[in-house]
Amino acid sequence: MKNKILYIGGFELPDKNAAAQRVMANAKLLREIGFDVSFIGISKDVKTALSNVDGFESMPIPYPTGNIEWIHQICTFININRILERKPHYVILYNFPSIASLKILKACHKNGIKVIHDLTEWETVSGWSMRSIIRRADINLRMHYCIKKMDGVIAISKYLFDYYKNVTNCIFVPPTIDIQAEKWKRNSSNNSHNKIKLIYAGTAGYGCKDRLDYIIDALKGKEKLELTVIGMTKEEYERGYSLQVPDQVNVNFKGRLPHLDTIKAVQDADFQMLIRDNNKKNSAGFPTKFVESMACGTPIIATLSSNIGDFLKDGINGVVVSDSKQLEIIFSEISNIERKKITEMKLACRNNHSFDYHNYQSVFSNIFKSQS
User: Fold this and answer.
1) Which of the following CATH numbers is that of domain 182-350: 3.40.50.2000, 3.40.50.150, 3.40.50.920, 3.40.50.360?
2) Residues 6+ apart with CB under 8 A from 75
3) What is the mean pLDDT of residues 127-139?
4) For 275, which of 33, 257, 315, 366 is 20 to 30 Å away at the CA?
5) For position 192, what pLDDT does the model report?
6) Angle between helical axes of 259-268 and 288-296 (0-180°, round to 10)
7) Cα separation of 334 and 336, whole Å?
8) How confident is the model over 236-257, as pLDDT tens digits?
9) pLDDT for 190
10) What's the confidence (pLDDT) of residue 325?
11) 320: three-class secondary structure by DSSP
């Protein structure tokens, strides 16, 4: 009989958020090395949510609405009996709230179940509303106490790996993908026009994560460049950043698109944009869009947040931006880049399989071992 793993957290399967992409890739690898994996995620519509995703049993709980449900999620998330009745050998908690983590850890240890934390961020919270205060306390307890009590940690970045490697069994696993999945195999459009197509696809965070405002400002007057933004509308951008989009910028806001449509748009672009400030939040995370852009065969113009410098090679599979103030100069250079050079960079991206989940089998085996 296969050993069981129960994966629990705020991911919305099959592909509604970046969390879903990560846990699905991890689950596929764990299945290939002999484990029976099932999920308890979240859903905005439980009645229509899939109960089986790529062969994995999925039992989502409702997305919290209102303060009472939100507090319940932080303190409990799910009834302990729903975990124990599955009789797992391992429970993986994905970016889990602190009080709920400790309750689950205590119950699981009483029943001989190991608890692993899949950790992909070190959140920061601004403001002093009651919700902000609660979130800030939860994050501090999680990062400084709860994680250290876990039987293991799957760290998404070298920053988090280095922070926890001496206090628990910690492995480094960046965002991974199934490189054999059909969505990565489609060919991009033939770009025969004169403009260089840039794309930003993601949730920008309005200044606390991706600096879309820096990008748009640096594009002023760059007539040979055009930017497509997926993930927000023009109105959302102007409201979130408190800025107007300059008339002299070629930018097209698409709003939110289905995952597969977004992947196709990234494949058809010449470059993906990834500009971030250097802070703890960005150092602790690892951008999923970087990994997906590589898989799409689309080079990245990026600042070196987290440890993407281990994978991004300037002029080979993308362009390194040492400082956001350098963007205007880089855009001037990109305006005159030869189409042959872009083709070479795209090929280098497509030939880079660093994020294929199959590469991490031995890494996962450092934590997950079959039990008789």
Assistant:
1) 3.40.50.2000
2) 97, 99, 100, 103
3) 94
4) 257
5) 57
6) 60
7) 5
8) 999 999 999 998 889 999 999 9
9) 57
10) 86
11) strand
Q: DSSP assignment, residue 2?
A: P
Amino acid at site 123: E
pLDDT for 126: 86
Residue 90 pLDDT grade (very low, low, confident, very high; cuts 50, 70, 90): very high
pLDDT of residue 189: 62
DSSP E strand boundaries for the chain: 3-9, 35-40, 42-43, 52-53, 56-58, 61-62, 90-94, 114-119, 152-155, 170-172, 196-201, 225-230, 251-255, 271-274, 300-302, 318-320
CATH 3.40.50.2000 in the chain is located at: 3-178+356-364, 182-350
- pLDDT above 80 (res 41): yes
- Gap between the Cα atoms of 57 and 5, Å rounded: 11
Indicate the residue type of 10: G
**Sheet containing 56-58, strands listed edge to edge, beginning at the edge strand earlier in sequence:** 52-53, 56-58, 35-40, 3-9, 90-94, 114-119, 152-155, 170-172
pTM of the model: 0.94
Q: What percent of the chain has pLDDT over 90?
A: 90
Buried b (16+ CB within 10 A) or exposed e, 171-210: bbbbbbbbbeeebbeeebeeeeeeebbbbbbbebebebbb
Instruction: Answer for the pair 154, 173: CB distance below 8 angstroms, yes or no.
Output: yes
| pLDDT of 159 higher than 60 | yes
